[in-house]
Amino acid sequence: MLDSLVTSKTRVKLLLKFFAHNNSGYLRSLAKEFEESTNSVRVELNRLAEAGLLLAEDEGKTKVYRANHMHPFFTEIKNMVSKFLGLDDLMERIVRRMGEVERAYIVGDYAMGIDSGIVEMVVIGKNLDTQYLEFIKSKTFEKVNRKVQVTILDTDPQDIVGIMIYGN
């Protein structure tokens, strides 16, 4: 969906990076992460910054980019990226149908803003419907072409590194 609206693959990667999570990045690290030339990444960073979607701040000799939360379309772009990744629908289904979910986290690559094709989740709760989980994992793969790996825990170990997407 997103890649049919935005024709530049580098721009899609940048939008995923900055609007899926509160990430920041600089030219060389982004080029290395995306396995793209620094020139192609620079061109897209400049276009997104000129449009006001990204903010560029100097940190020493390095220019660091991050999403502009004050942009009038920030929320819409963030929602579009979320739908593209399929995480909003996945989480809504899991929380609604799994049982007594206390908390849910996105961990791994997606928590760092990297679209690796594998969504890793940790779901914490009791008496969860694991058969439904297997069903929803296969449906998610069919719908958004991303593998879903879910770890189920009875209690929160309090040291999970990731983004809490359900719970308090």
Automatic annotation (TrEMBL):
Coiled coil: none annotated. This is Winged helix-turn-helix domain-containing protein.
